[in-house]
Structures are given as C-alpha cells and as structure tokens.
TrEMBL record:
The keyword Lyase applies. PANTHER family: 5-DEHYDRO-4-DEOXYGLUCARATE DEHYDRATASE 2-RELATED, DIHYDRODIPICOLINATE SYNTHASE. Keywords: Lyase. Pfam families: DHDPS (PF00701). This is Dihydrodipicolinate synthase family protein. The lineage of its organism: Bacteria, Bacillati, Actinomycetota, Actinomycetes, Kitasatosporales. SMART domains: DHDPS (SM01130). Belongs to the DapA family.
Length: 302
C-alpha cells in the first residue's frame, strides 16, 4: 500500500515550532527544563515540533544529546506524526538519526542543509536521496538554504523518493521562492517558510502554508495569531503581528543572525522559563540588549 503522508503534510501546514534546548548549570542538556518548555508549547495549542533544529542548537549538540532531545520530544508529545526530527551531518549519521527517530514513533524528519564547502546540485540530490531511501516510511523535508539550488532538482529528488513531502525553504528572497516552488511543483509539496514570522506573509502570498518559528518558544499566542491571519488571507492583521515582532526578530537577525538563538533564550530567561546559556559559536547578549529583549518579552501576552 502506498503511503500518502496526509497526516504529516497537514502537520507541516502550520506553525512549525523549533524548541530551544535548555542547558543546566553544569552545561549539560536539562531534560526537565526541556519537557517544561515543550509542555508550555503544547498547552498553548502548538502541535508541530522540530527537535534538533537550528534554534535547538543542533550543531552544538553531541550525538547522544541529539538522541536525548528526540526521545524527550516524542515522549512528551505522544504523537509522532506531528514531530519533525532534525537530522544531518554525514549520510550515515543522518540515516542513523532518522532510523532512531522512526523507531521511537516519529513519522517525519527534516534534513539539515549539507555542511560541506563544496555542494553541487546533483550532489545535493544524491545526499537527500540516500537519506530518504533509507527511511521510505518517513516523510522527509529538506531544509533549503542554498540559493543556487533549482526547483527542478527538488522535483528530480521527489521523482525517485515520493516520501519527500515538504520543503523548509529558507532563502531570503520571496521572488526566488515563488519561482522555485513553481518549478518544483507548487501542489506537490507542503511549502514551509523557513525564515519564520518575518518572511511568512510574503512567502504565504507565494504559496507557503506553514512557517517555522523560534519566537514561538517565548510567545506562542503571537505565532498563532500570525498563522490564523495568514490562513484567512487577512494580510492587514498579519502585518500588524509582523510589526509587533519586528524589533525582536531584528535583534535575532543582526550580524548574520549571530544572536538568533541567544535572543530567544534571553527572552525565556527574562520570563524565568530557561537559563540563558548558549554554546559556542553563539554567545550571551551584552547587558543593554538583555534589557531590551526583556522589555519586548514582557510586553507580549505569554
């Protein structure tokens, strides 16, 4: 019987939350703190989670820590169809992580962009094909940050791997996204705006039906307000939400997104929900920016 992945596709057409990974005082992953953050998201109405995403400091976690984060997420949610587990690095590592997630009940994986200085377009297809073919029963979502990649290459991948069901598109160019999605097949995939709320209105206007979010860790209601407005085609309201989050996201995106995770954790720390510590190559915020982030977070209905 052919797998249709309809449940997984529906889960992608939503706020796709990227939980932070809280650290304990000794620097290790804090399981209790992580569970509490997940429960807060779930209780607020967030249903789709990506453990081991970039906001979760994927590249700063050890293999064992990544497995722990996956296990904690699936235990807390109890519904693998709404968990999109981040996998990556070399092909054997990505495959092992995907199989580990599948064995725990996950039904989708997101494949991080290949971290290699030399990525050919055909090599990109080969990399993702090797992972997708190893887990044909899982929905696979490539995370695309490569502006050189063409939509035709994604279509080529999906021709041989029908379990490639969605795309997290994170190239900061709405016109390029619109063309890429149509070249690949607009209706063929679920298109997730991978640059979160700041890009969601423009990407939705071009065909996206979901967006990722790190801000959702801090203010789930704000992200839900955005998806609600976009689903109804109310761009006036969506842009009011955009204005509400603008400064917070500007702080995250400054200097090549150097403080992308740091700002989120600082906001959580100001609310007493998480320690502020991040791992290198991220860093803590200076005191003046800490105060600004705290003031923004205090102003939201959280």
């Amino acid at each position: 019987m052919t797998t249709t992945f309809e449940t997984q596709r529906a889960a992608l057409a939503d706020v796709v939350a990227i939980p932070v990974t809280p650290f304990a005082e000794d620097g290790s992953v804090d399981p209790a703190g992580y569970r509490a953050l997940l429960r807060r998201l779930l209780d607020a109405g967030i249903t789709t989670l990506t453990p081991n995403g970039n906001t979760g400091e994927f590249y700063a976690l050890t293999p064992e820590e990544r497995r722990t984060v996956t296990e904690l997420t699936l235990e807390e949610t109890g519904d693998g169809s709404s968990v999109l587990v981040g996998v990556g690095h070399d092909v054997p590592t990505a495959v092992a992580s995907a199989r580990h997630a599948r064995d725990l009940g996950a039904r989708m994986v997101m494949v991080h962009q290949p971290v290699h200085p030399y990525v050919s377009q055909s090599g990109w297809v080969d990399y993702h094909r090797a992972i997708a073919e190893a887990v044909p029963d899982l929905g696979v979502v490539p995370y695309i940050r490569n502006a050189q990649l063409t939509g035709a290459r994604l279509a080529e991948l999906a021709d041989s791997c029908p379990n490639v069901i969605g795309v997290k598109y994170a190239v900061p160019d709405a016109a390029k996204f619109a063309a890429f999605a149509r070249d690949a097949g607009l209706e063929r995939f679920v298109w997730v705006a991978g640059l979160a709320e700041p890009y969601a209105p423009s990407y939705f206007s071009a065909g996206a039906t979901g967006f990722t979010s790190g801000l959702v860790n801090v203010a789930p209601s704000v992200s839900l307000d955005m998806i609600g407005a976009l689903r109804s085609g109310d761009y006036t309201t969506a842009m009011k939400v955009w204005e509400q989050i603008r400064r917070f996201e500007e702080l995250r995106g400054a200097n090549g997104s150097a403080n992308n995770v740091t700002v989120v954790k600082e906001a959580l720390a100001s609310l007493g929900l998480c320690r502020r510590e991040v791992r290198p190559p991220s860093r803590l915020l200076p005191e003046d920016e800490r105060a600004e982030v705290a003031a923004i977070a205090a102003g939201w209905s959280v």
